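During the no-cost extension, the postdoctoral fellow (Dr. R.K.) reprocessed legacy sequence entries with the updated structure-token encoder. One reprocessed record is reproduced below for audit purposes.
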Amino acid sequence: MKKYINLILLGVLVISFGIYYAVKNVSWNEVKLLSGYYDEKITIMNTADIHGHLRFEDNAWGQYTTENIYGVMGMPLVKAMFESEKASDPNTLIVDSGDMFHGTNEANVEQGKGVLEVANMMGYTAMVPGSNDFNFGFDRLMEIQSQLDFPMVAANVYKDGKRLFKPYVMQEVLGKKIAFIGLLTPSAQRSFSTEHQDEIQITDPVEEAKRLVDELKESSDVIVLLSHLGDDADVALAGEVQGIDLILSGRKHNLYTHPVRVGKTWIAEAGAWTTHVGYATLYFNRGELQDISWNVRSLSDGSRGDAAMMSVVEKYYQMAMEETKEVVGTSSVELDGTRTSIRTRETNFANVLTDAMKERSQAEIAIINGGGIRESISAGEINLYQLNRSLPFSNTLVVAEVAGDRIYKAIERGLNAYPNGTNGAFLQVSGIRYAFDASRPAGKRVISVTFNDEPLDLNRKYKVALSDYLYNGGDNFEEFKDASLLSVDELLMNVLADYLRKHKVIEPGTDGRIQVTNQRYE
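Re-encoded structure tokens follow.
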């Protein structure tokens, strides 16, 4: 009897394991497809916020998403994944959610030429321009757009009253008409150079989406929004606009392992830097869209990348290495530029950068937004290649006279989204110290701001070093735009390079210039 009981128990365990495995690993939509419940499917692969990351890298230090990410696949691996998917299912498309052309040394070679070349090899159906795609200047992005083999779509970007980009592109697959709409965040206005500030308008994305959906709902079977608004804005938009089936988000670098649903709209985001690729699979029954599944995938073997594309990537890597091989100094400690650190707390990397800005300009105070630093630097020799990876944006050091109350309000604004690790507005400082209470509501978190161990004089004007990005209102900072501009210097990367050349060996730490009470994390 005992023998039979053991066999029964073993059988129960085997069956339980089989059920568990099926639940965890079998797509029920695929089962429904095989059983004939669904007639057909279409897969839409998605990349987002590539930021010029052409090359495979084993270790990304979790830079871009709040997930524990260690690898950047690079574009050749993404190409190989796309070709593999198409081989098994020809009804597969690939699209991008913006911020593709700027952000690495390879991307800087001839202002995005290598990224453009690789993008044209990928086989994209469409992409939405991202705010950082304007970093080489408006005119350069217009040039890139004209050389792409696929369209940029952005319905809410106008110049002199006319749309700069196609509002949408229609793609037919299996007799189904899929409309890909594009929308760009209005905050991208800050990325435009001064001469284009008044010529270009980015209109309300919600209103543009409503108009387009009304226009397309009769002529399309599926409406997909390629969004560079940010997933929080996408959720809000989906609550106001009926008729969008799928939103593929960009801008915030979040990795969605499961989609979000608002009404009948699915929302998902594929992370950034090619750490992952998103797969949205659309299932149809009698010609009507019935369901959408979402998953993200990655590969860890760089040798599996598309060979032709790897050759192009290697060419631009070698060009970038040659241009940036100079060693400018040494750090005896790692400089912490990890995304979740630099946007939530004081770090030694931010300290040395703001100290360098303050020393260079002889300002009393230096301020930088955490989002301006994109990567840590390991202890040891530092060359220009590594500096430019960490400070990839074309941000220039400026000096302005800023009233104390404006500085105080700016610090408060930088804490609005705390402790969200995607909050690039979190301010890092030199010359002042500030403390805040994380338990307080947004807008009321600052406890104190001190200068020379005294409370900041809200009525006095201070000589402040900051980036032109902040001065021009980037990250929605309004506090600096009316400040008197005293001087304009070089790129922040060059400012830090000169600081390293002068000091030769640095060992920066943290010294309590930013203090938080009632600490909490998301």
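Confidence is low (pLDDT under 50) at residues 17-24, 61-68. The domain at 39-315 is CATH 3.60.21.10 (Purple Acid Phosphatase; chain A, domain 2). The remaining legacy entries will be reprocessed before the final report is submitted.
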